[in-house]
Amino acid sequence: xxxxxxxxxxxxxxxxxxxxxxxxxxxxxxxxxxxxxxxxxxxxxxxxxxxxxxxxxxxxxxxxxxxxxxxxxxxxxxxxxxxxxxxxxxxxxxxxxxxxxxxxxxxxxxxxxxxxxxxxxxxxxxxxxxxxxxxxxxxxxxxxxxxxxxxxxxxxxxxxxxxxxxxxxxxxxxxxxxxxxxxxxxxxxxxxxxxxxxxxxxxxxxxxxxxxxxxxxxxxxxxxxxxxxxxxxxxxxxxxxxxxxxxxxxxxxxxxxxxxxxxxxxxxxxxxxxxxxxxxxxxxxxxxxxxxxxxxxxxxxxxxxxxxxxxxxxxxxxxxxxxxxxxxxxxxxxxxxxxxxxxxxxxxxxxxxxxxxxxxxxxxxxxxxxxxxxxxxxxxxxxxxxxxxxxxxxxxxxxxxxxxxxxxxxxxxxxxxxxxxxxxxxxxxxxxxxxxxxxxxxxxxxxxxxxxxxxxxxxxxxxxxxxxxxxxxxxxxxxxxxxxxxxxxxxxxxxxxxxxxxxxxxxxxxxxxxxxxxxxxxxxxxxxxxxxxxxxxxxxxxxxxx
Length: 546
Description:
This protein is an alpha+beta fold. The protein is 24% helix and 24% strand. The strands form seven sheets. An eight-stranded antiparallel beta sheet has the order 1-5-4-6-3-12-11-13, with helices on one face. Strands 7-8-9-10-14-15 form a six-stranded antiparallel beta sheet, with helices on one face. Strands 20-19-23-24-25 form a five-stranded parallel beta sheet, sandwiched between helices. Strand 9 (229-234) and strand 10 (239-243) form a beta hairpin. The radius of gyration is 24 Å and the shape is globular.
């Protein structure tokens, strides 16, 4: 279901650092059992293929430089940008564009489904414009449904405003009460609509006799909502890129360069044909853009046809550290994206090296669960001087495992997703690397597949620490009861899944790996490890109502 239309008009105090103490469950070492999952059909928003771990959204914005109407097809640029961010959300998507002339008219197309099914030649023709924003979604707050598709468009006293949001508001409850108390009605439970309505009213003490002061409105919202969000906000002729003060969600800027610029296109001397802002940089090269820099924590960046500039920076309290989500490195981001001056692939490679240092094992070959553990597996192989060899061949045409109605059928679905390369496996002692274990339902069938193909030993190594806590900042991590690390330690889990051994990367090892470049440069940094340690940078959600 999709819709295409022309849209026209008719301080909260910072929470203290909170840690949830672990309540370990006792499990019989000789016969550990898994809690059965629900037998009802799982929706897309409740699970993810293979892992049960989902990200929430990807945001993208683009604006053409120079004379308007532009020769750059902005709608296609945004569409390709969203395709590159499809891994961040596959449930719904949308694009809103503006020609930059009239504050009353935006062009919009959005709906449920993947980018490739939502946008065709007809819908793209209706999205002509000189600037626009886009969004791809995997629901967290607000639930699944077309009413929650983004970008949201609201009509203010000063014209239309479109907003796309990546993240989840920790203080959703109190902010919702405040907006409702102003007499504003909300049509969804989405954080994104709540943010948009929060921006519609001018803060007290701010003069707007000469027109709306959007940076002041954005600052006011940021003071009320400490995290977690990255935003792209479009007005008639400009786009704002906004990142929360903790830097929890990623956001970066790219420069659209002339086609013949080559690799030197990122030079400051190269003229810009346009500017883009995106959750990740992975799609920049495919749209003719070059990575410029990250939007800093608390920064409000304004993009116009003349370029981009910082219009404000909202500071964190002195006693708070930056809290960029460390699982962006582990799992969520595409390997060719750049965060904090380093490529994600390189960090994953180094995680594999560190994993060998912490959990070596005698083996003949190293391999990975494709594609998630491949970079770490190469790092493990290089550090150990063991051969890397592919042992699993993935069938890309099998349906998603999470739509199966029971754990047994999901496990069978996992086995059907892979074939074993028996010539590489037979008689070998194998180290199999994966990036994470969530519910623990999928690794057992893979181990059985490898043993049936002749593997003599199968040792599992996980390139991240055990997941033990829920995330309240935009990652749809299952409940604590569903997380296998809260039911079994590594030795118990190894016996349960049929592995000869199993080991995780330590929290200290992961943090050290991610921050190794920053230590060398003395650049201040900080990462959120709440799902691993229970230490939440902004405290717990309002009234624990999530």
